[in-house]
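WARN  no MSA supplied for this record, continuing single-sequence
INFO  ligand: N-(iminomethyl)-L-glutamic acid
INFO  echoing inputs
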Amino acid sequence: MSRYCSFCGGRDSDVGHLITGPRGVAICNECVKLAHQFGGTVALASTTEFLLTGISRLVTNDPRHGGITGTIGNAALVVRGGHVTWVGKEDDLPSAYRRFHTASCEGRAVIPGFVDSHTHLIFAGNRASEFASRLTGRSYTQIAAGGGGIKATVAATRRAPVSQLIIEAGDRVSAMVAAGTTTVEIKSGYGLDVDNEVKLLEVASQIGANHPVDVVPTFLGAHAVPVEFDGRRTDYVDLVCNEMIPRCAPLARFCDVFCDQGAFTVEESRRILEVGRRHGLAPRLHANQLADSGGLELAIELGAVTADHLEHLDDRQIEALAGSGTVAVLMPTASLSLRTPHAPAARLWEAGATVALATDCNPGTSYVESMQLVVALACLEMGLTVDQALWSATRGGALALLEEDKGWLGPGSAADLMVIDADGPEHFPYRPGSNLVWKVWKGGDLTVGGLA
Ligand code: NIG
Ligand code: FE
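INFO  complex generated
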């Protein structure tokens, strides 16, 4: 497979040799020269062992430390070889660690990196004019029925060359990284033919190589029935099952279906997810976003890893979800953008369901990169406590993606963490819209915020 310069997006066959740094970041000779012309240097090295001290509050998400978020006051944390090896009260720090390279957080809080478990961030163009017409009263479903919506983005994305998608989606991922996201799920779903779905999953993989973030890829060939299959939806489902899944399965971890009014039916979704499972793809489902259309019951029946959106749920469904192993992935920025009621996050938490929060980053219903804004809305609009929202945006997201060592901080966890420029996470809902990130480490590499 081709490799691409992380800075100009050039393909290795065009730009020549690429120098590779940690986590697959690559740079071509031209970009190195350009950096030197501007007086910069290119440093791709990283510190493998370090100690963080002066932590006002350390959110571990380890229940052994108490409460929902296992928060430790006046804490320290040790990283070695990409993993956390010790957390605790700074006063209890074993002396052997005191010789490690040390950075003081000077009274700031440390939390796990955000795990954004639901995005559609690879697309071309935008739908700002549709958004403007929604502000004056047209609905999302009316726009979709008129040929806009997902289909408009599919047309633009099919036309876009890979290099353009890598740069444009890469910009969105850079914004996510700058706001503290260290793991992101990315769905296909704007290709809707075999070659274009493969193209999007390859772009997802390249983005993971270009940026200091883990990418978890999801196949979403059943996002909409493309125009060339108008009136032949069964033929499209056949194509998804017989050709797309076999080609895309090696490039993805999950199979997702948009099971909803105006999208795919329960029967179609069941068939697609079962074929996906036979090809090694774990099922997940867009369910109950636009209507109560049976998606939630299907997710539970199939033992899907996640059921996502869930704006239309009654009490019986909340209990059923809480009694299942399926994670509820909720996206308050989609409801914000659609100006529709939020999913019942607080009731799901109360019932004992596992809740994850995500951005849903996409050009139609949620052009949002910031998990900090998601946490703020979850508190301000959905009624979650700060601890519930923060856990859902970190550990909940990791459980939604089957990423066992992510979303918590303690011996054996990934060293994916951020220092925020505040002494506690309540500053996220208190200051919505601000980027509170001070520094971010991904797998032990400092990726945001300069030398520590
Ligand atoms: O999660 N619900 C389906 N998919 C996206 C919207 C995609 C689009 O409008 O382009 C969502 O909201
Ligand atoms: Fe979505």
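The chain has three domains: 1-44, 49-111+409-448, 115-400.
INFO  checksum written, moving to next record
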